[in-house]
Amino acid sequence: MSLLAGKVAVITGAGRGIGRVIAEDLALHGAKVVINYHASAAAAEEAVASIREKGGEATAVQANVANFEEAQALIKTTLDTYEHIDILVNNAGTTRDTLLMTMNEEQWDTVLDTNLKSVFNCCKAAVRPMVRRKQGGRIINISSVVGLVGQAGQANYAASKAGIIGFTKSLAKEVGSRQITVNAVAPGFFSTALTEVLSAENKEKSKEFIPLGRWGELPEVAYLVTFLASDKAAYITGQVINVDGGIVM
Questions:
Q1: C-alpha angle 194/199/204, rounded to 5°?
Q2: Region at 235 (left for phi over 0; alpha for psi -120 to 50; beta for the rest)
Q3: CB atoms within 10 A of CB 74
Q4: Dist CA 38 CA 53 (whole Å)
Q5: How far apart are the first and last CA of the chain?
Q6: Which of 9, 55, 75, 198 is most buried as measured by Cβ atoms within 10 A of its Cβ?
Q7: What is the rounded distance in angstroms from the CA atom of residue 113 to the CA atom of residue 120?
């Protein structure tokens, strides 16, 4: 039997990047996946097609999860389609990098709403149906090593990712008695849309600070998420697991 057979998973911001690879790996292991996207409809449908071609089950649902009502609608659509939700992966994220002295309110609010408020919005909508079903659940929040160590020019991003860590630990304590686990994954350097802005020189220089001497491959995050989403991780909750090549040791 597949690792996640019969499970229903929602992955936010899953049209591309880490979210898409997570969705594909969850589907590969038997989960029915809901690929959430905000604006990248073509990319989301491409991800759905890729999963279906490999024999998996997937559907794309548009929602700006930074908006409370739209996040609620995303979970409702999932319940209407599949009747239950077992796995929630909060992956939606963005950046607006600049030094604090030049950062404006919009740059702060956009990052905090997209990265952190979306986690509240989606968990708020998903936890109650998980509790009512009485079969546990898995919530995996994608944070970042920047939330642990900070980064110049990313006060907004670091605050949002650090907030996810505190949120994860608090919610894990609230829902643990219902056998719902809540964990955070903190990636280091990976090739995504958020790191495309870095110059080739800076990308190469960053490897000097990584004990393994390389950037990560996206499946290396997905494999961990799939494990945390499975019954094999039933006794792991409230944890922050770095996938960073040792950069935050």
A1: 100
A2: alpha
A3: 24
A4: 23
A5: 37
A6: 9
A7: 10
Residue 142: strand, helix, or coil: strand
* Active-site residue, 223 included: no
Q: How far apart are CA 237 and CA 161, in angstroms?
A: 18
Contacts of 152 (CB under 8 A, 6+ apart): 99
Q: Which residue has the tokens 């802005």?
A: 197
Residue type, 78: T
What is the pLDDT, as a whole number, of residue 187?
96
**DSSP for 54-115, written as a single string:** TT-EEEEEE--TTSHHHHHHHHHHHHHHHS---EEEE---------TTT--HHHHHHHHIII
Q: What is the pLDDT of residue 193?
A: 63
In the chain, what are the domains?
8-243 (3.40.50.720)
64 CB neighbour count, 10 Å cutoff: 18
Pairing status of strand 180-187 against strand 240-243: parallel
Please give the model's pTM, rounded to 2 decimal places. Answer: 0.95
